[in-house]
């Protein structure tokens, strides 16, 4: 259940703007964006491969039907990003802010989220395959109707996260905070290790109308 690392390009070059800007039907490969401001962009059918994004701002950007593969995102800001039918493949996101963004119908395969702020993020109807969330703040994250296959949550805060109607196979929660998790019954088939197991049991009991008295 360890995501494949992004493929390293034979060589990269610094981004040249506006040539390497995010725009409709663009194909971008082997480019490094460092400290670039990409806020408020709107792009459709974008293809990005074997690129690095370091300390890049994408706040408020809108993307549709685009594919990002073999990408390294390091200390980037995705707050309030809106995507639809976007694929993120064999990529990593480290120490990045994804707060309040929307990834509806997204496709995530071989992706690692490491030490990211992913609170209030919408992953509804997403498809996750071989994905690791490690040390992430996932408070109030929305995984409703998502499909999760070979996914691991490690040392994450999932307080108030929503999983109603999620479909899970080979999903593990290790050392996570799982207070007031919504749709807890949909975690059928998942494995929970640590204090989160008791927190999850209490959530299931409350949602079933069972009063827990001490």
CATH class: Mainly Beta
Low-confidence spans = none
List how many beta strands DSSP finds: 15
Secondary structure class reads: mainly beta
Mean pLDDT across residues: 91
Series of secondary-structure elements, N-terminal to C-terminal: EEEEEEEEEEEEEEEH
Task: Outline the structure in words.
The chain has 214 residues and is mostly beta strands. It has one domain (13-207): 3 Solenoid (Pectate Lyase C-like). It is built from 1 helix and 15 strands, in the order βββββββββββββββα. It has one helix at residues 196-207, and strands spanning 13-14, 27-29, 31-34, 42-44, 47-54, 62-64, 67-74, 82-84, 87-94, 102-104, 107-114, 127-134, 147-154, 167-174, 191-193. Strands 1, 2, 3, 5, 7, 9, 11, 12, 13, 14 and 15 form an 11-stranded parallel sheet that branches. Strands 4-6-8-10 form a 4-stranded parallel sheet, with no helix packed on it.
Based on the model shown, name its key terms.
214 residues, mainly beta, Pectate Lyase C-like, eleven-stranded parallel sheet, 1 helix, 37% strand, elongated, PA_immunity-related, 5peptide_repeat, Pentapeptide repeat-containing protein
Q: What is the structure about, briefly put?
A:
Residues 1-24 are annotated as: Disordered. The chain is mostly beta strands and 214 residues long. The protein is built from one helix and 15 strands, in the order βββββββββββββββα.
């Amino acid at each position: 259940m360890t995501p494949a690392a992004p493929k390293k390009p034979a060589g990269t070059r610094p981004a040249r703007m506006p040539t390497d800007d995010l725009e409709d039907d663009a194909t971008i490969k082997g480019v490094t964006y460092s400290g670039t401001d990409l806020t408020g962009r709107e792009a459709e059918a974008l293809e990005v491969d074997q690129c690095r994004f370091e300390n890049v701002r994408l706040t408020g950007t809108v993307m549709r039907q685009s594919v990002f593969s073999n990408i390294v995102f390091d200390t980037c800001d995705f707050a309030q990003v809106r995507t639809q039918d976007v694929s993120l493949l064999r990529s990593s996101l480290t120490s990045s802010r994804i707060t309040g963004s929307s990834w509806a119908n997204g496709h995530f395969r071989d992706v690692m989220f490491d030490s990211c702020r992913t609170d209030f993020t919408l992953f509804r109807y997403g498809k996750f395959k071989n994905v690791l969330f490690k040390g992430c703040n996932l408070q109030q994250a929305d995984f409703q109707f998502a499909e999760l296959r070979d996914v691991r949550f490690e040392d994450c805060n999932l307080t108030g996260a929503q999983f109603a109607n999620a479909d899970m196979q080979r999903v593990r929660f290790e050392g996570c905070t799982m207070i007031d998790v919504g749709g807890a019954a949909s975690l059928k088939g998942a494995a929970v290790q640590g204090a989160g197991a008791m927190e999850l049991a209490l959530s299931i009991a409350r949602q079933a109308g069972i009063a827990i008295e001490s």
